[in-house]
Amino acid sequence: MNNVYPSSHPLVGAKLSLLRNVKTDSKKFRELIREIAAMLAYEATMDLAVGQIDIQTPLMMTKGITVLERIGLVPILRSGLGMVEGFWELMPGAEVWHIGLYRDEKTLKPVSYYNRLPIEPTVSVCLVLDPMLATGGSAVATVDILKRWGVTKIKFVGILAAPEGIERLHSAHPDVSIHLAAIDECLNEHGYILPGLGDAGDRQFGT
Ligand code: URA
Asked: For the domain that residue 172 is a member of, what is the CATH number?
């Protein structure tokens, strides 16, 4: 499938293995989420628009580049929160816009419970952050919200994905690139990714 980018970086793979381990405690789990997020941030931002600038080094004038995009990080509450710090290490000026969604038990559709986006978009590119792309429902709903807001350049960054979630996000929004640490096997009957890492929210927040 095009526009889907699982990382092939050995450090991502090694950190992901630690993250999956049931014996990894919450403190270490949060550190690993932050570190993997920073590495995925590097991979997901390869195509940011840049402009040329003049720089005075101690020795002479030279040319350099500056990133032209205004970046919005959009963590899906609550487990996307832990990825923000890793992204901020590389792009400290990025704005953070939180989106909260829950799944209606009757319709099974995502319902937005937190969205404070201003009327006009303030960023040119949005990076949607959610460690787990499981059914894909929240990711699709978040991208719907961002497109309605007026942002056209959107990327999804997650740690693990089930093929079902990738398929759903890709068919709803083929223009959205999907950046991942790894693609897992399937979902179980409770919507958990297998082999997965368990509940990413509970493991980060110790709940
Ligand atoms: N959300 C999680 O936290 N874990 C899963 O496996 C699926 C969704």
From this structure: 3.40.50.2020
